[in-house]
Amino acid sequence: MKRGSQNNRLISRARASDGSVSIFLITALSFVFLFVAVFIDYARIAAMKVQSERLARASVRSVMSSYDPELQQQYGLYAFGDSSGDLIMGKTLNASLSPGNRGDAFNLLPMELDSSGLMLERPLGKYEIFNRQIIEDMKYKAPIDFTLELVNKFKPMSQSMKETSNTVDVLKKLRKLYDEREEALDEMLAKQRKAGKSAEALSKLIMDPPGSSIVDTDLGGSIRTAADAAAQYNDYVAKSEEDAARPPDEEKQYTDLIQSYLAGVSSLSSSISRQAEKARKEHDKLLKEAKERWEKARKINEEMKQVIKDAENRSGTEGYDKVTSMNTPGSDGSSVGDAEMIRSIRQQAEKLIHSDDLMNGLNREIEAQKNMWISVDSKISELLSSMGSSSMKGSTIRASSSLQDYLRKYSMAGSDNVLDRQLAMLEQFRSSDKERKETEKKARMKLKEASKAIDAISRSGGQGSEVMKQFQELQRYYEESLAFNEGQGGAGGAPMKGASLGNDPYEAGKTSMNEMDSAYGSMGNMLEGIRDELYQNEYAVHYFQHFDMTKVDEIIANPSSVSGEFAVGNQEVEYILYGFHNPAGNVAAAYAEVFASRLAIRTMEGFVENSKMGNPLLILAAAILYGIEKAIEDMIQLGKTGSVQLSKYIPVEITYRDHLRMFLFIHSNNEKKMSRMLALIRLNTGVNPAERGTYASGEIVTGMRLWFLPGAAKALGTVFSSSTDRVEGNRYMVTRKADFSY
Q1: How far apart are the C-alpha atoms of 659 and 545, rounded to whole Å?
Q2: DSSP one-letter string for 120-139
């Protein structure tokens, strides 16, 4: 009995123990299941996040794959087309989330699209975006083409062009100063000569003709001169004494003759006094003015010395040295032309300076004339004091002799004339001036020929035609682009002007050299560091059409018969460069600027060709004449073939397009250039770049039903989820953004 009871107790304990184990196991399994269930959903959530990220990116990429094909093919640009971005995005998301047609499929991630949104930003019409796409397109082509096709052609003559620019600059300044100085000296001599001639009338009142003695004559003759009065004086004294000796009651015999003589002497004395006073005033005024002209000439002479001194330190030519020193692929570093010879011409400028001895001698002669006149004036005063006295004859001879000496030096032609000798000395110094003036005259005539061609182009183009309507539409697009980029591009402003030839060959020559300074300066800067401007300029000449220069001869010959040749599509690069909103303005400006560049290069050749002429100003005139003549020939050649030999020293062809590439660097105004390109793109494609985005920002919200314990998952979600994710009921919501830029 005891053993049975004991067994029963053991069995009861075992059963109780099994129950405890079961409860423990059930509890443990529950926790394990809960833990596993939560992590199953968490794994699904993690996978959902990755899938949502991929969906967002894929949908935005799908949207941006719909770029405008015309912009890409024609201009190498990327911008969203005219499709609906939201529609493309929605179709992509729906197709990606579709479960398919299989009924037995098990969908581990039954994701659903809750919402989606798309924003298109950063329009192509913004300078920053447009410029970035230009750089991306041209980053390999532009530096290589720029170096091989442009820099390497101009590099060999960089030092010769530098010396030409410096020489033209200094000699042009000296020529102007030289002519002003010589004009002042001519005026100085003219003033002195006029002062001298003012004494001629006085000489005729004193003794005419002059002589060294006066022969006595009887009363009754005319009294035109002091010599006449002196000649009759002794007879006047004799007759006066004879009449005075007569008794009071006896009639005087010579009263009328005596009265007539005295009246004549008095009248003559008044005339001499008036003429002397007039001559005195003339001398004071004219010799003072002569001294002023001398002082002006002296200052100009000193200014010329300073110009020569400053010539070797001229700024603005650093670009030539940069181009020379840079190592560029395909260049052998050779140099052409004759830089040393051109420099030696500039160093001859000292020949144009008057020596201090010469200038001081001219000044001393003014003082000598002034002093000599004072002496003459003193003799005349002495004569006036002696009128009607016995000393009149001697004072007349002395006054006349003094006047004649003065007139021989300062009025009469002859070897004694000081002013003639001075003029002859100056004319000897100016021996080349006549030939220079003739050369300048020829240069003006040749320059006028070139100007007529430019005027003919300017008058053509069909104002008021359909072509003009194109330009008016283009102008509207351009102004809208500027307004769209307000604060970056600034106001529209006036179009860029090309080189102005004018009527002065020296101004045309200097302008052409300034253009060349700018061209080499720009090339040098580009070689030091590639800049946005290089990409923009090369983009312009690669993607836009330039004018066909082989048509220019026909236009010049018949300016009123052409119109279609000036359509916008035929001169896009010229428009980008200058910005005239009329048919002929851009082509005329380009033609003038090509001529100016040819003039600069040919003037360099002209210095070498005419270096033996001696006078530096004559060499300058001849070099510019040579430059104008050869530049005209170049323009004819360019009109026939579209290209021309760069220089007689560099037998390589340079095209009209190459010239435009160079001018784009000279006229640096990047914002306006970009607005003109954008306006052309809009005109040619009908696409407004300001309305086409290049950057897409998309957002999608996806949801997925949770399988296990939404409450626990929600609690865990607060720990593991990002702030954009959330739990709504038994659904887990994920928000993802994606961006894409061309």
Answers
A1: 14
A2: EEEETTSHHHHHHHHHHHHT
| DSSP conformation letters of 20-53 | HHHHHHHHHHHHHHHHHHHHHHHHHHHHHHHHHH
Residue type, 79: A
Q: What does the alpha-carbon distance between residue 245 and residue 237 come to, in Å, rounded to a whole number?
A: 12
Positive/negative CA dihedral, 221, 225, 231, 234: positive
- The yes-or-no verdict on residue 34 having pLDDT over 80 is no
Buried-state track 143-174, b at ≥16 Cβ within 10 A, e below 16: bebbbebbbbbbbbbbbbbbbbbbbbbbbbbb
- Distance between CA atoms of residues 421 and 427, nearest Å: 10
CA dihedral 489, 495, 496, 500 (to 10 degrees): -160
pLDDT of 221-238, one tens digit each?
A: 899 999 999 999 999 999
Which residues is 643 bridged to in the sheet? 655
Handedness of CA 380, 385, 386, 388 (dihedral sign): positive
Sign of CA dihedral 517, 523, 527, 533: positive
Residue 651: φ, ψ to 5°: -80, 55
DSSP string computed for 195-236: HHHTTHHHHHHH-SS--S------TTS---SHHHHHHHHHHH
Q: Which residues is 56 bridged to in the sheet?
A: none
Start-end of H helices in 571-648: 572-578, 585-609, 616-641
pLDDT value for 718: 47
Report the alpha-carbon distance of residue 742 to residue 739 in Å, rounded: 10
- Burial code (b: 16+ CB inside 10 Å, e: under 16) for 62-98 equals bbbeebbeebeeebebbbbbeeebeebbbebbeeebe
Q: Are 456 and 641 in contact (CB under 8 A)?
A: no
pLDDT band at residue 41 using 50, 70 and 90 as cut-offs: confident
Q: Of the given ranges (98-102, 416-420, 582-586), which has the lowest mean pLDDT? A: 98-102
Residue 148: pLDDT band (50, 70, 90) is: confident
The tens digit of pLDDT for each residue in 348-373 reads: 999 999 999 999 999 999 999 999 99
Per residue in 295-318, pLDDT (tens digit) is: 999 999 999 999 999 988 888 788
- Which of 609, 627, 607 has the alpha carbon at shortest distance from 617? 607
279-282: Cβ within 8 A, 24+ apart: 279/198, 279/199, 279/201, 279/202, 279/377, 280/377, 282/194, 282/195, 282/198
Question: How far apart (Å, rounded) are the C-alpha atoms in residues 702 and 722?
Answer: 14
pTM of the model: 0.82
* Residue 331 pLDDT exceeds 80: no
Confidence of residue 282 (pLDDT cuts 50, 70, 90): very high
Question: Quick count: other Cβ atoms within 10 Å of Cβ 554?
Answer: 14
Percent of the chain with pLDDT over 70: 87
CA–CA distance, 213 with 435 (Å, rounded to integer): 51
Mean pLDDT of 158-181: 95
- CA angle centred on 382, ends 379 and 388, rounded to 5°: 130
Q: Which pLDDT score is estimated for 490?
A: 46
Q: How far apart are CA 505 and CA 47, in angstroms?
A: 81
Q: pLDDT value at position 463?
A: 56
Place of tokens 């009449």: 243
Structure-token pair, residue 127: 């300078």
Question: Distance between CA 643 and CA 630 in Å, rounded?
Answer: 15
CA distance linking residue 468 with residue 460, whole number of Å: 12
Task: Give start and end residues of each alpha helix (H) in 79-213.
Answer: 85-97, 127-138, 141-146, 152-154, 158-197, 200-206
Is residue 566 packed enough to be buried (19+ CB in 10 Å), middle (13-18) or exposed (0-12)?
A: buried
- Quick one: pLDDT band at residue 491, thresholds 50, 70, 90? very low
Contact predicate 500/583, CB 8 Å:
no
